[in-house]
Amino acid sequence: MRTRTLGPDRIPVSALGLGCMGMSDFYGPRDDAQSVATIDKAVELGVTLFDTADMYGPFTNERLVGQALAPHRGRVLIATKFGIVRDPADPSRRGVNGRPEYVRASCEASLQRLGVDTIDLYYQHRVDPNTPIEDTVGAMADLVTAGKVRYLGLSEAGSETIRRAHAVHPIAALQSEYSLWSRDIEDGIIATCGELGITLVAYSPLGRGFLTGAIRRVEDFAADDYRRHSPRFQGENFSRNLTLVDEVSAIATHAGCTSAQLALAWVLAQGHDIVPIPGTRRISALEENIAALDVSLSADDLARLAAVAPRGAAAGDRYPTEMMKSVGR
After folding, report:
1. Strands (E), 156-258
2. How are the residues of the chain apportioned to helix, strand and coil, as percentages rounded to the nearest 5?
3. 56 is catalytic
């Protein structure tokens, strides 16, 4: 397993992490036994960064990840998040909370669910527009002082917010969506992270599975699969994006790898301070993803990708309208 580093302290982590959200939520029925086996295999293959959040489930994913990683605790880093609040009566409805008292309460609850004494990397999942970032990060910094958190992160924050947060306490990582078809953070945010020594942890580097080339019909999704409601998987957007994926697949064939490996290799090639965290519940997909570390893209491959998948090539927003309002704050 190749390694990269997190943040100004250059904490060593595997060059690919594992996103665990889909093991409990958003992508159809769960299979905990399968998910635990996949987490075990990831550790065996050298993955050291595992990503969850309190809102995944909600709450069930932290328990799953904590239990699965308990035998491996000294070998891994567990990242979790707070800040997105789901309505117990209707989990599809959500708000954002960054108040200091909520930060403290959320951390205590996550520690219990994960079964750990310290959270390795604690993210604010979304920026609360009603709470100054200095107050939120100040409360997060108090958790570091108390020994309950090791390193701090933000998710989907804008450049100004990142700078203000970093001035309060060093930010180790920014987690944002980044892939061949989600590149809006190239408008200054990646540069800000580079300037401050903040590592970009790229979630959904496979375009929520679309960039693998395996998704051909929306009808194949489970009834409760989030992607049925995502703009990029709707109507004409789906058809246009399928054409994009087919063009990427042709380049993958030319490069001698799978579409998923090409998509991951592209993200990895954007900088050594980027750590993708593709999610999967299947060992076969995990092994395929890790093999992307052995894919070396030529200048010709990168040029062809730039031609068929330039910035803005994807049809449709990456989230529904209301959810889009919470990113880049």
Report:
1. 171-177, 199-203
2. 45, 20, 35
3. yes
Range(s) of the domain holding residue 128: 3-324
Q: Is residue 146 part of a domain?
A: yes
How far is Cα 33 from Cα 62, in angstroms, rounded to an integer? 15
Query: Cα(223)–Cα(242) distance, rounded to whole angstroms?
Result: 21
CATH number, domain containing residue 10: 3.20.20.100
Q: Which entry of 56, 122, 151, 178 is annotated as an active-site residue? A: 56
Instruction: Grade residue 116 by pLDDT with cuts at 50, 70 and 90.
Output: very high
Rounded Cα–Cα distance for residues 329 and 327 (Å): 6
Number of domains in the chain: 1
CA gap 42, 77 in Å, rounded: 13
Is the residue at 189 inside a domain?
Answer: yes
- By CB atoms closer than 10 A (0-12, 13-18, 19+), residue 317 is middle
pTM above 0.85, yes or no: yes
